[in-house]
Design brief:
globular, binds zinc ion, 11 helices, three-stranded mixed sheet
């Protein structure tokens, strides 16, 4: 598996991290904000906008290093679904960028600042538009709820022994925290797994978005079951080892039942 950690080189990452830290005023101020939709507090040192800044160079590098395809059979499907999901999630499709990467990887991801990457490998096994919508809804939910910002903040909070000054000078640990927060790591090629809590939230809101966009939410269950059955090689972003497949499929079914009952 190719290491995407190296994209842009260490210096570029350090610059990115310093920029991110400066923007965040990192470690000078802790913010714990209640998110009403999620029904819980989020530890956030960084805003959506700051995470978007952090992600933008990574996205540019990624597009230079990974082959993008304009093949109609992929792009047409993706361009048909993406705007509907983005709108259903409360966004403006004109502010998002969606790219299809030519790779056998069964994977997809979204980055802060409205970037969606989807691989031809996963599109090849999707039976219909609703399944594309299920995966996109999940990824867009991670962005909407600033899950990577939370991951970044948790990593920063865990580094209390490190002063901001030495972090900036040394790069090392904070840089790996930023890389991890964005989810662009060597371990899985592109994405590091989110926590169980984040995955379940992305599933829950993802299925709402797809239903709101007019897709049959049962296709999400079908797709997740199919993914669970054919685990091999690097797990897709949305199928990390936790939560268990049974847990997330049960939650999806519960959520769909709620949608059906109109609550
Ligand atoms: Zn996910």
């Amino acid at each position: 598996m190719k290491s995407l950690l190296k994209i842009g080189g260490a210096r570029a990452w350090r610059a990115l991290v310093i920029k991110g830290l400066a923007a965040a005023g990192v470690m000078t101020l802790a913010a714990c904000a209640y998110n009403e939709s999620l029904g819980r507090n989020q530890l956030l040192f960084v805003s959506q906008g700051q995470m978007a800044q952090l992600a933008s160079s990574a996205w540019t590098d990624l597009k230079q290093k990974e082959p993008i395809t304009n093949e109609a059979k992929y792009v047409n499907r993706v361009n048909r679904v993406a705007p509907k999901i983005i709108r259903a999630a409360g966004g403006n499709p004109a502010e998002w960028e969606v790219r299809v990467f030519k790779s056998d990887q069964i994977n997809a991801f979204a980055l802060p600042g409205g970037k969606i990457g989807i691989y031809t490998g996963i599109l090849d096994i999707m039976e219909n538009d609703a399944q594309i919508a299920a995966v996109m809804g999940h990824e867009v939910a991670h962005v909407n709820f600033n899950h990577s910002g939370e991951r970044y903040s948790q990593a920063a909070a865990a580094q209390t022994a490190l002063s901001a000054g030495s972090a900036i000078a040394g790069g090392g640990q904070v840089s790996s925290a930023a890389v991890q927060a964005l989810g662009i790591g060597a371990q899985y090629g592109v994405l590091l797994p989110f926590s169980r809590k984040h995955e379940l939230e992305a599933d829950k809101f993802g299925v709402r978005y797809m239903a709101r966009a007019g897709y049959n939410p049962n296709e999400a269950v079908k797709f997740w079951e199919k993914m669970a059955a054919q685990k091999s090689g690097a797990p897709p972003e949305f199928l990390s080892s936790h939560p268990s497949d049974a847990t997330r499929i049960a939650q999806l079914k519960k959520e769909i039942a709620l949608l059906r009952s109109g609550s």
